[in-house]
Specification:
The complex is a heterodimer of chains A (75) and B (686). Chain A is built from 2 helices and 5 strands. With 75 residues, chain A is α+β, with helices and mostly antiparallel strands. Chain A has a single domain (4-74), classed as Roll (SH3 type barrels), CATH 2.30.30. In chain A, strands 4-3-2-1-5 form a 5-stranded antiparallel sheet. The longest helix of chain A is centred in the middle third of the chain and has 8 residues, at 23-30. Chain A is globular, with a radius of gyration of 11 Å. Chain B is α/β, with parallel strands linked by helices and 686 residues long. Among the domains of chain B are: 2-241, P-loop containing nucleotide triphosphate hydrolases (Rossmann fold, 3-Layer(aba) Sandwich); 509-682, no CATH class. A 7-stranded mixed sheet of chain B has the order 2-3-4-1-5-6-7, with helices on both faces. The N and C termini of chain B lie far apart (86 Å). Classes of the chains: A alpha+beta (75), B alpha/beta (686). The interface between A and B is large, with 38 and 44 residues. Strand 4 of chain A pairs antiparallel with strand 10 of chain B, so a sheet runs across the interface.
């Protein structure tokens, strides 16, 4: 399974699924991280974590542990 | 289906307009929207200064409402907290839901909900709108940031958007007021209409009453299905109503972030910004603070000289005027801090700071968002603790509250300043570093280090919980709205005066009474004077004996055995007891204790000299540089602030946590002070 964490900075990809059922995955989905949406990995913070992605015209920051729940497919 | 409903509504609106003029009942309108969608700017534009800020009972969510005069109609406008969703995973969302469903006791169910939607971020903003429609609420969309969107050639077709959503959509530019008239008309029209849009994206099986729809949310699988259904519908709306552009391209915010959240320069700039903020707070505030201080000083003098002598005059001059002055003197610093915080927040930088620092904060077990409340606590723990409500996880929030008072607040500064002026002024390390500045920095660092240690322990013991999630929007950089920033600054200052001010004033009067009563008669004074040598050693026998025999003096003597190992005598004890009300009270209490009496000598030495020259009862010096340092260490760590205690009680809704906080902080302060004094003495200082 390819997750968001494994994508190089600057790459674009598509969300396949958000795994796990908890408040975090729900929040991610509410923020628009749902299967089918495309995004771009923007950067990682100074200590390598959190990550910033751009989707639906806005920037979203999340930790690596949270990004690990997002299954993706490179474009 | 949706098209038909809009048409029928237009016909009805003609009749509605007639009814508007005769309607007597005020309308209630709720303003809902994502954070950073321009909701606050619109709220300020609609209400002007007719607004009030409070809290929802029992919780910490800020309650903001105002009066909106819309085309002759008086509307009660409720500003909901910024929301991404109504699914009640956070306290803010829970409150918003309760308001929208009419479950807050003194707010009627809103007649209309104005959904503020950021045109540059249409898809995610529409998510909340789809939920509002599912709640069967009459919704009007106020589309903001249209000008910004158009600059990016992101054109939004309002007609198609309105038709597909089945609700009115109005373009507004909050700052200039453009579109406000149309918004008023749409809101009044909708308020009189009985038409409710249909949530066409939900399958027939879950169409139903709002209870039925949201009951199904307890089931995870169908909850996810609903989220997908909403976004599916939104994508459809988006594709049809918006001219397509590449929404993933590098925008100007990302270019700015190339520097501001740069792996190396980002942190340097963050430190630089904080330095500038604190430097400005301390240097710019000092002049108005001195003026206020002097002003209240002369006011007290004036009261004493123009009013007849007696208890009442003493109460007014030394109790009330001094108490009010003690509160207001912190206003310049608080105003400046909130000015900077509002600017950092409104520009979008605050989210970047959390992004940059999250990894570090997590090392302690806290959320990047805890950074903001902790930063605010450097001015005053009260707004800082109030700001922890942005942290969703209750345990993380509690841990942040528990350590917030370790940040050296502005009330500690007078204490540090006095001690440094009395014992460490004019001394330099390596010939150029002022010892005073180094000591102040050391006190700040001591507080931070202790906070880190305590948070680390708390998060691994009684507040054990998995690391808090960090899913956060990095909003686009924006030029802050001048009016919003100023309004925010004055609102916060008002809250400080109301919540902290009243307590500080009450305590000042109480302390005045403790030191004033019981009165020692002149006859007793002369008796004591002739019989005790110790009293004769006092700078001012009258005042000294009065204080010694007062309730405060008795309390000071009572705790003397406990504080003696810290090098403190009973007079410092009196000041310590007094400063449990508020730290800065130490300074005024010391000036009362060491006051040689304005009536007796014309050349009363200043407080600094009085502290330097103060003697213990046995005639030895009451203060040494080591005593001063010990006192400073105690003040960094001890929970000495009635107002903070009151706020913590309110925010945690628990006496046990409040008492725990007072206990552990003061215990820690005692141990650290003991260590400082005893080690210092052993090393030959003192």
């Amino acid at each position: 399974m390819q997750t968001l964490t494994k994508l190089p900075i600057g790459s674009r990809a598509k969300v396949i699924a958000v795994h796990g059922n908890n408040a975090i995955t729900k929040r991610l989905m509410e923020m628009g991280v749902v299967p089918g949406v495309t995004f771009r990995v923007v950067k990682s913070a100074p200590f390598g974590d959190p990550l910033e992605i751009k989707l639906r015209g806005y920037s979203l920051a999340m930790r690596i542990s949270e990004a690990d729940a997002i299954e993706v497919e490179s474009e | 289906m949706a098209i038909a409903s809009v048409k029928s509504k237009d016909i009805r609106s003609v009749k509605a307009d007639v009814r508007v003029k005769t309607a007597k009942n005020d309308l209630t309108v709720a303003l809902a929207g994502n954070p950073n969608a321009g909701k606050t700017t619109l709220f300020n534009q609609l209400t002007g200064l007719r607004q009030k800020v409070a809290n929802y009972p029992g919780v910490t969510v800020e309650r903001k409402e105002g009066t909106w005069n819309a085309a002759g109609e008086v509307i009660r406008l409720i500003d909901l907290p910024g929301l991404y969703s109504l699914d009640a995973t956070s306290l803010d969302e829970q409150i918003a839901r309760d308001i929208l469903t009419g479950n807050i006791y003194d707010i009627p169910k809103p007649d209309v909900v104005v959904a503020v939607v950021d045109a540059t971020n249409l898809e995610r903003n529409l998510y909340l709108v789809t939920q509002l429609i599912e709640f069967r609420l009459p919704v009007v969309v106020a589309l903001t940031m249209v000008d910004v969107a158009e600059k990016r050639s992101l054109g939004v077709n309002v007609k198609i958007l309105s038709r597909m959503l089945g609700i009115p959509v109005v373009k507004v530019t909050a700052a200039s007021g453009a579109g406000i008239d149309e918004l008023e008309a749409a809101v009044l029209r909708t308020a009189r209409s009985t038409d409710r849009p249909k949530a066409s994206w939900l399958s027939e099986t879950i169409q139903g009453s709002e209870e039925e729809i949201h009951l199904s949310l307890t089931d995870d699988a169908s909850a996810n299905k609903q989220i997908f259904a909403r976004y599916g519908f939104i994508s459809e709306v988006y594709q049809r109503s918006v001219t397509p552009i590449d929404t993933l391209e590098r925008g100007y915010s990302e270019k700015i972030d190339g520097i501001l959240t740069h792996k190396f320069f980002g942190l340097l700039i963050l430190i630089g910004i904080l330095l500038i903020v604190f430097q400005s707070i301390f240097s710019w505030a000092s002049l108005p603070m001195d003026l206020l201080d002097a002003g209240f000083g002369s006011l007290a003098e004036l009261a004493k000289s123009s009013l007849p002598e007696g208890i009442l005059t003493d109460l007014i001059a030394d109790g009330i005027i001094a108490g009010v002055g003690g509160v207001l003197v912190f206003l310049p610093q608080i105003l400046l801090l909130f000015l900077f915080l509002s600017i950092l927040e409104d520009t979008g930088y605050m989210a970047r700071a959390a992004f940059l620092l999250d990894r570090l904060m997590r090392g302690v077990g806290l959320h990047g968002k805890a950074f903001v409340p902790l930063l605010s606590s450097f001015a005053c723990a009260i707004p800082g603790i109030m700001a922890t409500r942005t942290i969703e996880n209750p345990k993380d929030r509690l841990a942040t509250i528990m350590i917030a008072p370790f940040m050296s607040c502005s009330a500690r500064l007078p204490v540090y300043t006095l001690m440094i002026a009395a014992f460490f002024s004019g001394q330099y390390i390596f010939g150029f570093l002022s010892l005073g500045a180094v000591l102040i920095l050391a006190m700040y660092m001591l507080g931070i280090v202790m906070a880190v240690i305590v948070a680390f322990i708390l998060k691994r013991t009684i507040l054990k919980s998995p690391p808090p999630p960090f899913v956060m929007e990095l909003p686009p950089y924006r030029v802050p709205n001048f009016k919003t920033v100023l309004l925010n600054m004055f609102t916060r200052a008002g809250i400080f005066i109301k919540r902290a001010g009243t307590v500080i004033l009450a305590i000042s009067i109480l302390l005045w009474a403790l030191a004033y009563f019981p009165r020692t008669s002149a006859e007793d004074i002369s008796n004591i004077q002739s019989s005790t040598a110790a009293a004769a050693a006092e700078g001012s026998p009258d005042e000294g004996i009065q204080l010694r025999n007062s309730f405060a003096g008795q309390l000071g003597h009572l705790i003397e055995p406990v504080i003696e190992p810290l090098g403190f005598d009973w007079k410092i004890g009196v000041a310590l007891i007094a400063s449990f009300a508020a730290r800065e009270v130490l300074v005024s209490t010391l000036s009362i204790i060491y006051n040689t009496g304005a009536d007796s000598t014309e050349e009363s030495p200043s407080l600094i000299n009085a502290v330097r020259d103060a003697k213990k009862d046995d005639g030895s010096k009451a203060w040494t540089p080591l005593t001063a340092l010990t006192l400073m260490v105690f003040f960094v760590l001890a929970m000495q602030c009635m107002s903070t205690v009151a706020v913590v009680r309110r925010e945690t809704n628990s006496w046990s946590w409040t008492i725990f906080m007072v206990g552990y902080m003061t215990g820690l302060a005692y141990l650290a002070a003991l260590l400082t004094y005893q080690v210092g003495k052993y090393l030959g200082f003192g």
